[in-house]
Specification:
There is one protein chain. The chain is built from 16 helices and 14 strands. It has three domains: about 210 residues, Rossmann fold, CATH 3.40.50.1100; about 90 residues, 3-Layer(aba) Sandwich (Rossmann fold), CATH 3.40.50; about 80 residues, ACT domain (Alpha-Beta Plaits), CATH 3.30.70. It is elongated and about 80 Å long. It has a six-stranded mixed sheet. Strands 5-4-3-6 form a four-stranded parallel sheet, sandwiched between helices. A four-stranded antiparallel sheet has the order 12-13-11-14. The protein is an alpha/beta fold. Helices cover about 45% and strands about 20% of the residues. A hairpin with an 8-residue loop joins strand 12 and strand 13.
């Protein structure tokens, strides 16, 4: 999807390059100027020059601090005394809560019920009052607006606010300061605040630079809106930080003018990207933070040969979910495989199988020995979960077992 824009001017847009520069001066020293580093391995994999902006190194592990702080610093004394309220699936919540706490501003955060526990805990730890309500961000927003009116709180929108957009745009300002030769930015899209601010900054500094957004396939509202399609979103996603139904009006206006295209990536691609960030860069990315890398691998035609900046926008992921993603990745790559074979119900058979697998270099993780439900009384069904080097190694394991007379098949892993 391309916008068909004719001019990169930001003059008529709700946020300008001057606004982003003012935000950068305002928040300087209170948020981290995160590193933007080249990845040798990802560059080789993608046949492009890949640079990563590590926003997961912010204190709250997310870029959201930038827009939140830029907004809080512009409140009047009377607004500060009343306190602020925000709705968020987690990272905006933490950004508002942390900096409100620093500035002595009371904060209330309304979060959808599906918000990961780690984000809820961290938000509370920053001193905010947390209200869990609703199955979507829109339902949480309704409650936040109700509370704002009832308690006379100042509403801090996560993306549809010029101050927030300008704050998020400081990401691109820093990226082009550190790596001015970048010609493409790849930025996750939820409600649109980050990509809008980054597009204003990047296109203001380099009019020919391409700005590409990435959404999860189930929540591709920006892509649908820009293509003139009916917006249909929903379903479970590991990228809950960008699982947003409604794009902000200000971000949408900026997107129409300045974005090159918006891509969507599926859940498997996002999981692979999370695992790749950890294995290659030794850094933790949440689902939303990994979508840029997922798009890079899923749509090589847009990136080959280019100097690409990826925004790893956050690293707040539950450890249990991260463990699951990594193990599922090992299964997909054939590095964990489950085998089923029949063995005789006689002494030494299990040890024989274990010896064959060990001799071929496999590491047995789990064994399920099934006597009662097999079709042959004198045979036992055996399921063995094995750690392997790669798919080729799985073939070696199968050959070792079959050459010793065992009938074996792959149940899971290695393209079962």
């Amino acid at each position: 999807m391309t916008t068909g824009m004719t001019s990169p001017t930001t003059a008529a847009l709700p946020v300008s390059l001057a606004d982003v520069r003012a935000a950068a001066a305002r928040i300087k020293g209170a948020v981290v100027h995160t590193p933007c580093l080249r990845s040798e391995t990802l560059s080789r994999i993608a046949s492009a020059d890949i640079w990563i902006k590590f926003e997961n190194l912010q204190f709250t592990a997310s870029f959201k601090e930038r827009g939140a702080l830029n907004t809080l610093l512009q409140l009047t004394d009377e607004e500060r005394r009343r306190g602020v309220i925000a709705m968020s699936a987690g990272n905006h919540a933490q950004g508002v809560a942390y900096h409100a706490g620093r500035l002595g501003i009371p904060a209330t955060i309304v979060m959808p019920s599906f918000t990961p526990n780690t984000k809820v805990k961290h938000t509370r730890d920053h001193g905010a009052r947390v209200v869990l309500l609703g199955n979507t961000l829109a339902e949480a927003a309704t409650e936040a607006h109700r509370l704002a009116a009832a308690e006379k709180l100042v509403f801090v929108h996560p993306y549809d606010d010029a101050r927030v957009i300008a704050g998020q745009g400081t990401i691109a300002l820093e990226m082009l300061q550190d790596v001015p030769e970048l010609d493409t930015l790849v930025i996750p899209v939820g409600g649109g605040g980050m990509i809008a601010g980054c597009a204003v900054a990047a296109r203001g500094l380099k009019p020919d630079l391409k700005v590409i957004g990435v959404e999860s396939a189930g929540y591709s509202a920006m892509r649908q809106l820009l293509a003139g399609e009916p917006v249909t979103v929903g379903g479970d996603t590991i990228a809950e930080g960008i699982a947003v139904r409604d794009i902000g009006q200000a971000p949408l206006a900026i997107a129409r003018a300045l974005l090159d295209r918006v891509l969507s990536v599926d859940e498997v691609a996002i999981e692979r990207a999370i695992a790749l960030f950890l294995e290659v860069e030794k850094t933790v990315a949440e689902g939303a933070g990994a979508t840029g890398l997922a798009a890079l691998l899923a749509y090589p035609q847009y990136f080959t040969g280019r100097k690409v900046g990826l925004v790893l926008c956050g690293g707040n992921i539950d450890t249990r979910l991260l463990a699951s993603v990594l193990l599922r990745g090992l299964v997909r790559d054939g590095r964990i495989v489950r085998l089923r074979l029949m063995i005789g119900d006689a002494p030494g058979q299990l040890a024989r199988v274990a010896g064959l697998i060990g001799g071929a270099g496999g590491n047995i993780v789990e064994v399920l020995h099934q006597r009662l439900f097999g079709v042959v009384a004198k045979a036992t069904e055996l399921d063995v979960t094995v750690e392997t080097r790669d798919r080729a190694h799985v073939g070696e394991l199968l050959a070792a077992l079959q050459s010793d007379g065992f009938k074996v098949r792959v149940l899971e892993g290695a393209d079962a």
